[in-house]
Amino acid sequence: MKILAIETSCDDTSLAIFENDTLLALDTKSQIKIHAPTGGVVPEVAAREHANAIFEVCENVLHQSKLRIEDIDYIAVTWYPWLIPSLLTGITFARTLSKILQKPLLELNHIQWHIFSNFLERKKEDITFPLVCLTVSWWHNDIYYMSSLWEMEKMGSSQDDAAWESYDKVAKMMGLGYPGGPIISQLSSEYSQDKNTQLFPRVWLKKEEFNFSFSGLKSAVKREIDNRIGQKWHLNDEDKKEISYEFQNAVNEVLAYKLIQGALEKGVSTVMLAGWVSANSDLREKIREKAWENHLHFLYPVKNLYCMDNAAMIGILAYYKIKHS
After folding, report:
1. Domains, in order of start, for the chain
2. Can you tell me whether residue 11 is helix, strand or coil?
3. Per-residue pLDDT tens for 25-46?
4. How far apart are CA 305 and CA 204, in angstroms?
């Protein structure tokens, strides 16, 4: 069984080819340099770039896998949710191929394939159910109770700004560039002063519930930046490191706490992490520590590549969907 997977939900044009659950080829064309001047993704620009790149990327994965397009048995594509103009480019490409080749088409959910990124380079039996999973990406933080591979109950979600979005906006406030997450993470790791100040509030909402809110934290960061600029007219390198460290801590402590509390409420023995921010080493360490304290098994994608938006996750979800059908 050979699967062609297509991902154009935001600003990366990504295609992959699988043979069963084995990744044969993956190629991704990034748009980061194109969107850097605006400090974020312009949907219409992203859609145009997808249209310009998608045929070349498809040719690349076919070449890598040494297959012809006629050898493909199934086509899978992201259909929802995220940026509609970007999604439509991939969906149109996938539906056209499906029609021409007379091959079955699977239109798959973006958040679900982030969760299934944990199955890449793992076997099904490596992940035991029930479990609680935290997804952390640009526009969503969600906690799910998964009683089985296909039964999911949402326990909580973002009420305003999600974690990655907040990272981008805080980075923009400090003039650090785009995307903000990796930059803030790097600066945070370089901060070496007093690390017990808790400069910014932890926004728990109701501790016994599992929703998230980071808009107030973002406002607190803006006030701190404005105050420091008002005192000395600029942020120096140490200011940027300290603010990055304190901001990251405030976000990650809340994310880790809510995930572990969700697991304890549901009485599961496994917690799982997925989405862009699952690549953040500080978040992983905070969850790992709390998981160990509570005798929980902790899983996250085996490679940072599988934390990002790319077609590998679509391909592995498609494989399990086909097997399940």
Report:
1. 2-117+307-324 (3.30.420.40), 125-301 (3.30.420.40)
2. coil
3. 999 998 878 887 777 778 888 8
4. 30
